[in-house]
Write a structure and sequence with these properties.
Layout lengths: L5 H10 L1 H22 L4 E9 L15 H16 L2 H11 L5 H7 E5 L5 E8 L2 H23 L4 E5 L12 H26 L6 H8 L12 H5 L4
Helix pairs in contact: 2-7, 4-5, 4-6
């Protein structure tokens, strides 16, 4: 296989820079149009709760350092409870939603806030109003159920979910950036494939490599005058 130098690669890219620009801009334009007009927007709303430790969880002075770890373990439990079938079914019934409990659970996520006793229930939906409504309803049902299951008395809503009109998905800027990189990669790939399949001799150096030891008798230079007067 014939080796190609870095300088030859740079020269090849320089010669075909217009193709790279055109293909890259085409990719970016197509992705922009597809993202804006053909991908459904999704919105999210969050409600924040403060959840105390359940009965049986006590901490002494020597155990204070482990409270963060305890909270992290508890949030996993809270997440499973918040997305459990019983709570999702109650939320679904209470709001009269026309979706399955499993689909509703996929819209809900539960996370801890900065490793504290605060937990955040976030709902993502194609309808911003519905996202806020489900988040607040889930928080209400969750507090009632977790208080009974884990014997927690100090449950409070810190922030209720509000309607967020700014979509969280799709990310137009990120998609355009990916299209930009993909356009460059595809255009460079096309250039190299076309160069590999091109068997024409472009200069004297390539000719010398092909004919090896056969001497070159003469070279006809390229001339615009010869090209223009070639029909005479």
């Amino acid at each position: 296989m014939e080796e190609i130098s870095l300088q030859e690669i740079l020269d090849l890219l320089r010669e075909n820079w217009k193709m790279i620009v055109i293909i890259t801009l085409l990719f970016m334009a197509l992705v922009t149009v597809f993202t804006i007009f053909f991908i459904d927007k999704e919105y999210s709303s969050s409600t924040t709760l403060i959840v105390g430790k359940p009965e049986g969880y006590t901490s002494t002075a020597s155990e204070t350092a482990s409270e963060v770890l305890t909270n992290q373990k508890l949030v996993g439990t809270y997440s499973e409870i918040a997305k459990s079938e019983s709570i999702m079914s109650e939320v679904n019934t209470g709001l009269g939603l026309d979706i399955s409990d499993g689909s509703l659970a996929k819209m809900v996520s539960v996370t801890t806030v900065n490793e504290t006793e605060l937990i955040e229930i976030t709902v993502t939906s194609k309808d911003p109003v519905l996202a806020a409504t489900i988040a607040n309803k889930t928080a209400t049902v969750f507090m009632t159920n977790v208080a009974e299951l884990m014997k927690i008395n100090n449950l409070q809503v810190v922030d209720t979910a509000v309607v967020n009109e700014n979509p969280v998905s799709p990310n137009v800027k990120l998609n355009i950036a990916i299209a930009f990189l993909l356009g460059i990669i595809v255009s460079v790939f096309i250039i190299f494939i076309r160069e590999t399949l091109n068997t024409t001799v472009k200069n004297v150096e390539e000719l010398k490599k092909l004919i090896d030891d056969v001497p070159i008798v003469a070279i006809i230079p390229e001339s615009s005058e010869l090209n223009n007067d070639g029909g005479r």
